[in-house]
Automatic annotation (TrEMBL):
Protein name: TetR family transcriptional regulator
InterPro entries in the record: Homeodomain-like_sf, HTH_TetR, MT1864/Rv1816-like_C, Tet_transcr_reg_TetR-rel_C_sf
Entry keyword annotation includes Transcription: yes
Origin organism lineage: Bacteria, Bacillati, Bacillota, Bacilli, Bacillales
GO MF entry, a single one: DNA binding
Keywords: DNA-binding, Transcription, Transcription regulation
Start and end residues of each HTH tetR-type domain: 4-64
Amino acid sequence: MRAGIKPESVVAAAAAIADRDGWDRITLASVAENLGIKTPSLYNHVEGLADLRQKLASYALANLKDQLHDAAIGYSSKQAFIEVGHAYVQFVREHPGLYEAINRVVSPKPEAFEQASDSILNLFIRLMQPLGILEEEAVHAVRGLRSMVHGFASLESMGGFQMKEDLKESLSKAITYYMDGINCSRIRQ
């Protein structure tokens, strides 16, 4: 084994390949080549391609979690959701392969993946508390918001927005409309 190769190096090499070439281009051979080692040496760090992809998904979600938490700092109410939404879309722009890893993780999901997922959900639930949304309802609201932001990021990555209007403004307005809708539905109840 080449000196300096650590499990984190293997995952980082896979992440670089995923973002540069796409999820489907991650192979043990491509990761080994990226690290300058022979493929069998990877088995000192991963059990195989499926294990590497699970580790990559955990790494990716932990990075997304950190970006979302950082984006929320210092903001509340709608603006917190706008900032977090922008951070989410920015992550997808900068890390398309990592984002795909998050969405292609298979069950059973690694514990690290589940922990990062729970942390993201808890962030959104905390951000919704000042709005008076109960935790049971917050899960539904978070799913809707995530679906909207995921859709926005996906459409953007496929070149789906060709009009001249500013994308950042469009996303901000979409999140604002969504949050206003949540507030209106709460008032009517």
